[in-house]
Amino acid sequence: MTPTHFTFSTAFILGLAGLAFHRTHLLSALLCLEGMMLSLFLALSLWTLELDATNFSASPMLLLAFSACEASAGLALLVATARTHGTDHLQSLNLLQC
């Protein structure tokens, strides 16, 4: 494994660990998701450049577009949660109360 692949793998695993273990605020969960998507984007871009294939050249841009959609939906949920509950703590959210 090259050092660049190790770096991207470590960044993804750190984002996943942050998402799994630090679940207090919705904003921190969204930041961990964005870090994971950024490491996936960089790894996919590097993989496309290493293969030197034009077949996969649109894949990083497609992933980036989905990442932007995910970020906008997450921020909309964060604003809606902050307006209705007054906080972004994940402990205060209950799916059984609507």
From TrEMBL:
One term under GO cellular component: transmembrane transporter complex
Pfam families given in the database record: Oxidored_q2 (PF00420)
GO BP terms in the entry: ATP synthesis coupled electron transport
Superkingdom: Eukaryota
First-level EC class: translocase
Its job: Core subunit of the mitochondrial membrane respiratory chain NADH dehydrogenase (Complex I) which catalyzes electron transfer from NADH through the respiratory chain, using ubiquinone as an electron acceptor. Part of the enzyme membrane arm which is embedded in the lipid bilayer and involved in proton translocation.
Full protein name: NADH-ubiquinone oxidoreductase chain 4L
